[in-house]
């Protein structure tokens, strides 16, 4: 059985809906993990994607976050939010808010989590500590599935570049988030828990970045970062036949600032 699984930070599913529908038709993933919906659960365009054969499980509040899984393989055991997921205490809030940053489901033979890891903002900001706590919780949550025989993967926007090779110029990020030792240690902890980074294979470019800022011609100049990742257990990784960044989806007007990452499995 061939299964195609993808992840994409869509940067507003409402604004990018035509791009999303076009890409679903051309790439035809069996399962797609989306992040940064920027819409509420009820406002997701379920009917539009259903016309292409996808059921959707979404989780959003209509603000900056939000995650979803689209599947042609059905759904079982859907979970919204990580168990014991930490919340973030904003400056103007009385209590921490658990943001819609994770949704898990079993889709046919594969179990997946779609995750949108907190950005971290600045190293000395409370959001950075929240990010590290969030990643620690993710590690604890995935242990059992990572050790299991069923193909399992965590896909999404991790907001961490795993190595210096995953940014266009590491010197440009000195003192900034996304490349710090604690953030990268959190990714290493996921590997120690039983997951491995499924690396996309480069096509035209040696470094298969997944995100490019809208400003300063970052995409044409390939000044990007690889922060959209697929972390799979052994059963998942052993089944991979191909993995790539679909740069074509980043081209043109009205696109997300991220590109989809596609992984093909033979199960």
From TrEMBL:
Region ranges (Disordered): 248-267
Tagged with keyword Phosphoprotein: no
Keywords: Hydrolase, Magnesium, Metal-binding
Required cofactor names: Mg(2+)
Domain Endonuclease/exonuclease/phosphatase: 6-258
Record-linked NCBIfam families: exoDNase_III, xth
Family under the similarity heading: Belongs to the DNA repair enzymes AP/ExoA family.
Protein name per its UniProtKB record: Exodeoxyribonuclease III
Organism the protein comes from: Kitasatospora terrestris
